[in-house]
Amino acid sequence: MNRRRAYEDDGDFYGERSRKRRRVSENQEMEERLEALILRVGENSTSSLESNLEGLVSVLESDLGNFRNKILRILSECPIKMPEKCTIYSTMVGLMNAKNYNFGGEFVDHMVKAFKENLKQCKWDAARYALRFLADLVNCHVISTNSLLQLLDNMVDAANEDSVPQVRRDWYVFAVLSTLPWVGRELYEKKESALENLLVRIEVFLNKRTKKHHNSLRVWSVDAPHPQEEYLDCLWAQIRKLRQDNWAEKHIPRPYLAFDSVLCEALQHNLPVIHPPPHQDSFEYPMPWVVYRMFDYTDCPAGPILPGAHSIERFLIEEHLHSIIEAHHWERKDCAAHLLNLSYKDKIPLEYCIVEVIFAELFHMPTPRYLEICYGSILIELCKLQPSKMPQVLAQATEILFMRIDSMNTSCFDRFANWFSYHLSNFQFRWSWDDWDSCLLLEMEHPRPKFIQEVLLKCLRFSFHDRFKEMMPETYTKLIPKPPIPTYKYTMEGAGE
Q1: Which residue ranges of the chain lie beneath pLDDT 50?
Q2: What is the widest separation between alpha-carbon atoms in the chain?
Q3: DSSP letter assigned to residue 131
């Protein structure tokens, strides 16, 4: 019986298989190259962003025939996973829509599908970033203003549903309000009356909602010197201030303005009617929070001015910093580097904003998002990367917290003591203790001496007792914990009995 395989006589078999393998590897290599180009657009480059966008759009347009689905997927994921580059990707989609109307329609459908899917899966941040991107596509003449306003109205309708948890209603209003800084100016110029009606409906909702949770989420029991505002109330005040300024903000980069002559001639698409999925008992919604404030412009030295508490720029800066921490909290060095490389760092006192946001995360009630040591390690890396500024700002923040500790929430008091002891252990336990001498005149159970006592007790776990006796001023002797000597009952007085 002839056991030779039939294809062995065909000398072309191996050549054909090799060509197929080569073709697959070439396609895979091309896909990876396209993905890298899209992901890195807008990052460090010798040429301008505008020329980079034009070149990338030309590349993508020529490859649409072979890699259409891949391009659609990447372009719809990037603004959700990298929300800080939202306007860059909306400009790219706008330019491609101007050249290829059918691709623009496919992309809008793809983005709408992603938005709906995120809502169904309770991926609230991803849904909010998808909504923001859809709104920004209005600025690029990809989506019509009427269809976006219809979507925003439907979301406010969801906020007015009965018999659903308040956290669900709050999130839908928050999603709409947090989207308006990107598209407010465009809606104001083209659909002012519809925008005003939307804001009136939101104001009615905010006036009716209960805020029983507010007191339990406060860091301090008093509102001096900074009011502790509930997050929706604060954002609403910032949106009203933006409306007074005719929806003109200064911190969102808008690269599509350079291509206005091209984009304004493009045909627009209408969003389909989108109804938010109904509430289910299994859905979990983001919990409310209190907006943390530590600094104002008087605390910062000469230089860029810290935006006011009710300016939309303060919201945009804080949201960006929070998203960086969320994306990079697993790697403290990367997180610190990204925080210090904020895109508009020259316009603001960046170090003060970073420290305020990190302490906002650490003191978040009822529990911080991540382990306490995560924030401590990021602050240490920040001090290493920027030794000329960050340690001074952190020392100023510590002084402010210590002076206000009398009214601090007990849980936050413990977190503050844990962080400070850990921080001191990484900087040879150096601190200007003489500046806090006034606390020695207070009773031992007063929060200030109690805080120092707690810090020294925790520091003892990182060092040894004699170190503190040498390090601390003599006036602090009564606050230094007792030496941790072993107790052996058989050598004590009366052991014979």
Answers
A1: 1, 4-9, 14
A2: 106
A3: H
